[in-house]
Design brief:
The complex is a heterotrimer.
Chain A: H1 3-34, H2 41-58, H3 63-86, H4 94-116, E1 132-134, E2 137-139, H5 141-160, H6 164-174, H7 176-181, H8 186-212, H9 221-232, H10 237-262, H11 267-281
Antiparallel strand pairs in A: 1-2
Chain B: E1 11-22, E2 25-36, E3 40-44, H1 51-59, E4 66-71, E5 74-75, H2 81-86, E6 89-91, H3 104-111, H4 120-124, H5 126-147, H6 163-176, E7 181-185, H7 193-210, E8 213-217, H8 221-227, E9 230-235, E10 238-243, H9 245-250, H10 252-259, H11 261-265
Chain C: H1 13-16, H2 23-42, H3 45-71, H4 79-95, H5 100-124, H6 128-147, H7 149-152, E1 159-160, E2 164-166, E3 169-171, H8 174-195, H9 199-209, H10 211-216, H11 221-248, E4 250-251, H12 258-271, H13 276-304, H14 310-331, H15 335-349
Antiparallel strand pairs in C: 1-4, 2-3
The chains are: A mainly alpha, B alpha/beta, C mainly alpha.
C-alpha cells in the first residue's frame, strides 16, 4: 500500500462521504424539527430514484425536467408521510415512533419493488466516466459532482435557516411548546421538514443512482446516513457535512487497508464500528447539543 | 418519652461540614447535622435553599464534594443510591416517584426489594424456590398496608388513585423496606388540613411503632413545630438556625428568611 | 359471566398470587394444553410442521424480546443476531459431537454472554441511542457470522444441522420435533408468567419506569439491565438453536439478518408490549401473514381476472407487511393483546355490561 493510493482512497472517500452527508442531512432535518429518528431515509432515497426513472423513462422527459418533477413529487410524498403516519404518533413512546419509521422503511422499499421490480437499472446523468486528475491522484468525476452538489445543498440550508421559515423551524426544534405559544404552526413546520428531507432524499437518490444504478441497495444508504448523522450530532446540519467527510475518509482508508486482510466488504463493518464508538464515547456527536438522553 | 428512652445516643445520621456545588453555585455550604435515634428531625427553609440537595447528598444522588455523611457511625459519603438504600435509608420524593404502571400492592412489594433475593433461577422455579419468600414478604407488606389503611386501593393501579393516597403509598413503600432512617420530602405538599393531620399521625406512629428515625422536610410550620423533636433551618445553602422548633422559629434570621427582614425591621 | 370473578375468595397469599386466579382461565389453559399435546393426532403433518411448530418457537423467541423490551424497557434491534449466535453455537457443538441437550444449553449460554455486550451499550445510553447501537451491533454480528468461515462454514455456505438426539434417541418425526418446540415454548411461557409475580419481574419494571425511584428502593439498575439482557439473550439463543434444529435443519447467515430482527420486533409490537399472550398473537400474525397474503392475492387474481408479474408477487406481501405495521401503530398501538383484553373485559361482566364502572 503506497502513499499515493492511500491518499487517493482518502480523497475519493471524502467525496463519497459528502454524498453520505446528503442522506444524513435528511435525517437531521427531521430530527431537528420533531425529534423523530427517520429510519426510512434510505428507502425514501431509493423511492426517489425510482420516481425519477419513471419520469425519465416512461414519460420520456429530459433528465433535468424529470429531476424537477421527481423533486416536486417527493416534496408531496414527504408531506403525506408526515401527515398520515407520524403526526398521530406525536407524544407516543419513542419505540412506537422507531417502529413506525421501520414500518415505513419496509413499506416504501417493498412498495417500490412491487411497482418497479428489483433489477438494477442504470441512471445516466451525462457525467463522463473519465477520471479527474488532482495532481497524481485519480478522482472519480461522479463523486466530485456529488460532493459539489452536497456542498451547494449545505449552503442552501445555511441560508434557509436564516430565512423567516428557517427561524420558525429553529424555534420548533428548540422548544415546540414555546413555539406553539407564540403562534407558530408546529404541525406545518414539521411537515415542511419532512418535505425538505424528501427533497434531499431525491437529490441523494439522483446522485447515488448515477454511481451505482437504481436498485434495492440504495435503501442500504440508511446505515451510512445514520452513522454520519449521529457522528455529526443528530441536530446539526454542519455536523452532518463534516462527519460525512470524516466517515468517508476513515472508510476509504480503512477499507483499502482492511479489505485485503478480511476478504472484502469491510465498509459496513467500519460504519457499524464508527456508529457504536460514537454512541459509546460521545453520544451527542461532534456538534450536537449535550442534552442527550444518558443513563 | 425522652430521646434516651428510644434507644442509645449514637446518632443515626451525621453530616459533617457537607458542601455541594453545581458548576460554581454553592447549593450546600458547611452543613453540620446530627440526628439522634428515634427523633423526628425537621428541615425547613425557603424554596431553593438546599433542602432537597441535602437529601440527595445523603441518599447518594449528588454526593457532596466536601465533608462526610455518616449513617449509624459508618461513612456513606459517595456511595451509590441503591447501595445506600440497602443500608437502611428510605425516602419519599417531593413530586412522587411511584411506578405508575403497577398496582399499589406491587409498588409496596418493591419496597421489600432489599429483603428479597430476585434472581432468574428463583423466577423459573417459583413453585420451589420463591413462593415461600414471596408469601413472607407479602405478609410484611400487608402489615404496612394495614398500618397506613391502604386496604381499599390495594389492587388499584397507582396511576388512578388520588394524590393524597399516592403520597401514602409512597410512604408505605418506604416503610416496607423497614428502614432505620426515613427521609420524607414534603409529604404534605398540596394536602388539606385533614389529610395533613392524618399524615402527621402516620409519621408519629411510624416512629413509635416501627422504630424509624425521620428527617422531615416541610413548609408547613404548624406541622414542624407540632411533631418535630428538633429542627434545622437552611437559607441559600447555609445553616441559619438549629435546635428545638420553638426556638428556631423565633430566631430573627429564620423569620427574615421566610418573611423578609425589611418588613420585620420596620 | 364467562370469566366470573364474583365468589372467588383467596384465603392465603400464595393463592392470591396464583398464575390464573379465575377458574375459567384455568379451564381454558388446561384445554389449550391438551389440544396442543394432542395436535399430532388430529392435525395434518404439513400444518403441524410448517405452521404450528415455527409459531411456537417464534413465540418463545418473541417472549425473550418482550422481556427486554416490554419488561426492562431496553431497546434491542439486534435480537436476531443473538438468536443466530445461539443457532450457530448449537450447530457447531452438535457437529463436534456434543449431545444436543447440552448443546442447546451451551447455545443459550454463548448467546447470553455475547448478548450481554448489548447491555454495556445500555449502561451508557438509552432510548434512541441504545436502539441505534444495538442495530449497529446487529450489523457487526451479521458481518462476523458471514465473513468468518470458521463460523459460517465458508462464504455463502449453509451448515447442515445434525439430527436432534435426546437422551440418545434420534428425534426425526414431525411429532417429535413438534414436542421439542412445544416444551420449550411452555417453559419460556411459564418463566414469563412467573416473572409477573416475583421480585425479579418487579425490579425489571422498576428499572423501566423510573430509574431513580428504583435506586431509592435499592434496585441496582445496571445489574438488572445486565440480567435482563443476559436472560433474554439466553431465551433468544436457545430459540434460535431450536428453530434451526426443528424447522430449518440447516443454518445460513440470512436466517438471522437485520430484517429478522425487525420481524421479531414487529411480533412484539403488533402483539403488544409487556404482555405474554400478545407474543403468541404477534408471532402468529407476523408468521402467517405472508402466506395468507399470497393466497389472497392469487385468489383475487383469478377472481378478478388480472395477472401480476413475478416481481410484484414476490414483493407485495412484504409491502403489505410494512403497511400492516404502520396501520397497527396508527389504529391500535397497544397491539393485538389489547384487543384480546378488551374482549375479555367485556366477557368478564357479560351479559351485565352496565355493571362496569
Amino acid at each position: 500500500m503506497d502513499a499515493i493510493s492511500l491518499m487517493e482512497s482518502a480523497a475519493n472517500g471524502a467525496l463519497i462521504g459528502l454524498m453520505y452527508s446528503l442522506v444524513a442531512m435528511g435525517i437531521v432535518l427531521i430530527y431537528k424539527s420533531s425529534s423523530v429518528p427517520n429510519l426510512a431515509q434510505g428507502s425514501m432515497t431509493m423511492l426517489a430514484a425510482y420516481v425519477l426513472l419513471a419520469f425519465a423513462n416512461s414519460a420520456g422527459a429530459p433528465i433535468w425536467a424529470a429531476i424537477s418533477l421527481a423533486i416536486i413529487t417527493m416534496f408531496i410524498i414527504g408531506m403525506a408521510i408526515e401527515r398520515v403516519a407520524l403526526r398521530r404518533l406525536a407524544g407516543r413512546p419513542i419505540i412506537m415512533i422507531l417502529m413506525m419509521t421501520l414500518g415505513l422503511e419496509i413499506f416504501l422499499r417493498a412498495g417500490s419493488m412491487t411497482i418497479w421490480g428489483g433489477t438494477t437499472r442504470p441512471m445516466n446523468l451525462g457525467i463522463s466516466d473519465a477520471p479527474l486528475f488532482l495532481g497524481p491522484l485519480l478522482i472519480n468525476r461522479a463523486y466530485a459532482f456529488g460532493a459539489v452538489v452536497t456542498i451547494a445543498m449545505f449552503g442552501f440550508f445555511v441560508l434557509f435557516f436564516r430565512s423567516r421559515m428557517g427561524v420558525v423551524l429553529r424555534a420548533i426544534s428548540d422548544d415546540y411548546t414555546a413555539a406553539w405559544s407564540v403562534g407558530i404552526s408546529v404541525e406545518r413546520g414539521v411537515a415542511l421538514s419532512w418535505a425538505m428531507s424528501a427533497v434531499v432524499a431525491t437529490i441523494a437518490g439522483v446522485l447515488w443512482s448515477s454511481v451505482q444504478g437504481v436498485d434495492q441497495s440504495l435503501a442500504q444508504l440508511l446505515l451510512k446516513g445514520v452513522t454520519v448523522a449521529v457522528l455529526g450530532g443528530l441536530d446539526s446540519i454542519g455536523g452532518a457535512l463534516l462527519a460525512g467527510v470524516l466517515l468517508g475518509v476513515v472508510e476509504g482508508i480503512a477499507s483499502s487497508v482492511l479489505d485485503p486482510l478480511l476478504g472484502g466488504a469491510s465498509r459496513d463493518l467500519v460504519d457499524a464500528a464508527m456508529l457504536i464508538l460514537t454512541i459509546l464515547i460521545r453520544p451527542h456527536g461532534l456538534f450536537g447539543r449535550h442534552d442527550i438522553e444518558r443513563v | 418519652m425522652t430521646l434516651k428512652d428510644r434507644g442509645g445516643d449514637a446518632p443515626v445520621l451525621e453530616c459533617r461540614s457537607v458542601e455541594r456545588r453545581f458548576s460554581g453555585i454553592v447549593a450546600l455550604n458547611g452543613i453540620d447535622m446530627r440526628i439522634e435515634r428515634g427523633e423526628i428531625f425537621g428541615l425547613v427553609g425557603p424554596n431553593g435553599c438546599g433542602k432537597t440537595t441535602l437529601t440527595n447528598a445523603i441518599t447518594g444522588f449528588y454526593p457532596p464534594q466536601r465533608g462526610h455523611i455518616l449513617l449509624n457511625g459508618r461513612d456513606i459519603t459517595g456511595l451509590a443510591p441503591h447501595y445506600v438504600a440497602t443500608l437502611g435509608v428510605a425516602r419519599t420524593f417531593q413530586n412522587l416517584a411511584l411506578f405508575n404502571g403497577m398496582s399499589v400492592l406491587d409498588n409496596i412489594l418493591l419496597g421489600r426489594h432489599i429483603h428479597m433475593k430476585p434472581s432468574v433461577g428463583r423466577t423459573a422455579l417459583y413453585w420451589w424456590l420463591a413462593r415461600s419468600d414471596e408469601t413472607l414478604n407479602r405478609a410484611a407488606v400487608e402489615d404496612v398496608i394495614d398500618f397506613l389503611q391502604l386496604e381499599s386501593v390495594r389492587d388499584e393501579l397507582v396511576d388512578g388513585i388520588p394524590i393524597g393516597l399516592k403520597k401514602r403509598v409512597e410512604l408505605a413503600r418506604a416503610l416496607a423496606a423497614e428502614p432505620s432512617f426515613l427521609i420524607l420530602d414534603e409529604p404534605m405538599a398540596g394536602m388539606n388540613q385533614e389529610e395533613k393531620e392524618y399524615m402527621a399521625r402516620f409519621i408519629l406512629d411510624a416512629r413509635d411503632e416501627r422504630n424509624v428515625t425521620v428527617l422531615l422536610i416541610e413548609h408547613h410550620m404548624d406541622v414542624i413545630t407540632g411533631i418535630c423533636d428538633r429542627m434545622l433551618a437552611l437559607n441559600y445553602g447555609e445553616m441559619i438556625g438549629s435546635g428545638v422548633p420553638a426556638d428556631v422559629v423565633a430566631d430573627p434570621r429564620v423569620i427574615e428568611a421566610y418573611i423578609g427582614g425589611a418588613h420585620v425591621a420596620r | 359471566m364467562l370469566f366470573r370473578q364474583a365468589g372467588i375468595f383467596h384465603t392465603d397469599y400464595s393463592a392470591d398470587r396464583a398464575l390464573f386466579p379465575i377458574p375459567a382461565d384455568r379451564w381454558m389453559i388446561g384445554i389449550l394444553l391438551l389440544l396442543a399435546l394432542a395436535a399430532p393426532i388430529y392435525m395434518n403433518t404439513l400444518y403441524l410442521s410448517s405452521y404450528l411448530l415455527p409459531w411456537l418457537v417464534w413465540t418463545a423467541g418473541a417472549l425473550g424480546l418482550n422481556l427486554i423490551l416490554g419488561w426492562a424497557g431496553q431497546f434491542h434491534l439486534g435480537y436476531a443476531a443473538v438468536m443466530g449466535i445461539g443457532a450457530y453455537a448449537a450447530v457447531h457443538a452438535t457437529r463436534a459431537g456434543i449431545p444436543w441437550e447440552i448443546a442447546i444449553v451451551l447455545a443459550g449460554i454463548t448467546a447470553a454472554v455475547i448478548g450481554s455486550v448489548f447491555a454495556f451499550a445500555a449502561l451508557r445510553v438509552k432510548g434512541l441511542y441504545l436502539a441505534l447501537s444495538t442495530l449497529a451491533l446487529q450489523f457487526v454480528m451479521d458481518w462476523t457470522i458471514s465473513h468468518v468461515p470458521a463460523i459460517s462454514g465458508g462464504t455463502q455456505a449453509t451448515l447442515q444441522a445434525p439430527d436432534i438426539r435426546l437422551l440418545g434417541w434420534a428425534v426425526t418425526s414431525d411429532a417429535g420435533l413438534y414436542y421439542v418446540a412445544l416444551v420449550w415454548c411452555v417453559l419460556v411461557t411459564s418463566f414469563m408468567l412467573n416473572l409477573r409475580r416475583t421480585a425479579l419481574g418487579r425490579a425489571l419494571v422498576a428499572v423501566r419506569e423510573k430509574d431513580y425511584a428504583a435506586a431509592v428502593i435499592g434496585v441496582n439498575s445496571f445489574y438488572f439491565k445486565l440480567v435482563a439482557f443476559a436472560t433474554s439473550s439466553f431465551i433468544g439463543g436457545v430459540s434460535g438453536a431450536i428453530l434451526i434444529g426443528t424447522f430449518y435443519h440447516a443454518v445460513t447467515p440470512e436466517q438471522f439478518s437485520v430484517d429478522v430482527s425487525i420481524q421479531a420486533l414487529a411480533m412484539v409490537i403488533v402483539g403488544g408490549l409487556g404482555s405474554i399472550i400478545s407474543s403468541y398473537f404477534g408471532a402468529a400474525f407476523i408468521l402467517l401473514m405472508p402466506g395468507v397474503m399470497n393466497s389472497f392475492i392469487s385468489w383475487a387474481a383469478t377472481k378478478f381476472g388480472f395477472s401480476l408479474g413475478i416481481e410484484t408477487l414476490a414483493h407485495l406481501p412484504q409491502a403489505f407487511y410494512g403497511a400492516l405495521i404502520i396501520g397497527f401503530l396508527l389504529i391500535e398501538p397497544l397491539g393485538l393483546g389489547k384487543i384480546y383484553n378488551n374482549i375479555r373485559d367485556y366477557l368478564l361482566v357479560w351479559p351485565f355490561g352496565y355493571t362496569k364502572k
